[in-house]
Amino acid sequence: MTLEFCIESLAAICNSIPAAMIAIDSNYRVILLNEYVELLFNVNIDTITGCDARELGLDFGSESNSIWKCLENNIRITDKETTIKFNNIEIQATLNINPLLNGNDITIGMVAVICDNSLISLPESRMQHLETLASIGEMTAGTIHEIRNPLTSISGFVQLLNVRAARQQDETSTEYCRLITDEVTHINNILSDFLTLAKPQPNKFVKIDILRPITEVLALLYGEALMYGVEIQQHLGNEPLYLLANSEKIREVLINLCRNAFQAMRRGGKLTINVSASQEAITINITDSGHGMSDDVISNIFKPFFTTKEAGTGLGLSVCQRIIRDHHGEICVSSTLGKGTTFTLTFPRLAE
After folding, report:
1. For residue 136, which of 187, 194, 203 has the smallest C-alpha distance?
2. Which residues contact residue 331 at a Cβ distance below 8 angstroms, ignoring those fewer than 6 apart?
């Protein structure tokens, strides 16, 4: 085993530690540090290795004096909450210090391990957030059920009134009934979207060729594309691309994204559907030549009830994101004002 191999192995081990690690010799020189130090403190490993840690401005806050004494007195520090300052960056961290000893138990340096507290608390906060969302989801599902009951009654009575109006040839009442029915349908659609977000139903996934729902959606939207004056270009390839999916849900996502693109282009434009794949993933790019979006809009676009449309509910893209994630995929967006927008869908690919 060569010295070079040992050094490379040691570096790989250090870089696998999910915390910042700095080793300092008895002369206060930095002899080893991992990539996490670069991430936390925005420093370059190559430029600070071999430098005096004190001259670099490495400050362990109230523990600094004790820590430097570790090099002299074999002092250990375990799980100490403190403030670390380095390269003009300050973090609240949990600090562990252990002396480095040679074969004769003489201190030749020390190793400091710095854990960023904001990252340590993230899983617990995330778990509390998920539990809160689950409770809200249960409550929302029950509320939606209670709302739908009177809506069903309203729809039934409106149908009866519509029949009576038709018999009496009362066109005004017929038109009112139509408007009420449309609004009830609109409310039901909003409730369905909200229910999908609040409490998703179990999906029945089967092996499908992703090209099939794409082709079906493009055929379905052909008339709308003509109405908007939009040219559709498709680059789907000829090979089947398989994944585990609910075909109906995939079509729902594609229809939503394509219709959004039509509306973004107002009158005329080009919609491009491009499908590509690697051995592990399938990627679908849906690109329009519309007015594009600002960075502020992009950062909020998947949030429930956020919309830039006058009559939009702000739930469509949130539902799309939920569906894609239910398929263990990802959806992201890139856009340039005045040039257009691209939505990218990525799914895990199944072997043929």
Report:
1. 194
2. 302, 320, 321, 324, 325, 343, 344, 345, 346
What is the rounded average pLDDT of the residues 67-88?
Answer: 73
Q: Would you say residue 263 has pLDDT above 60?
A: yes
Calculate the CA 118 to chain-centre distance: 19
Assign 3-class secondary structure to 16-83.
CCCCEEEEEECCCEEEEECHHHHHHHCCCHHHHCCCECCCCCCECHHHHHHHHHHHHHCCCEEEEEEE
Give the pLDDT confidence of 206-240 residue by residue, as tens digits. 899 999 999 999 988 888 888 888 999 999 888 88
**Looking at residue 313, what DSSP letter applies?**
-
pLDDT of residue 313: 62
Which of the following CATH numbers is that of domain 3-120: 1.10.287.3610, 3.30.450.20, 3.40.190.10, 3.50.50.60? 3.30.450.20
Q: How high does pLDDT run on average in the chain? A: 79
The secondary structure element, H or E, covering residue 196 is: helix 171-198
Domain spanning 206-348: CATH 3.40.50.10490: no
In single-letter form, the type of residue at position 94 comes to: T
SS (H, E, C) 324-340: HHHCCCEEEEEEECCCE
Give CA angle at 205 (208, 318), nearest 5°. Answer: 100
Q: pTM of the predicted model, to two decimals?
A: 0.50
236, β-bridge pairs:
none
Q: At residue 205, does pLDDT exceed 80?
A: yes
Tokens of 100: 């480095």
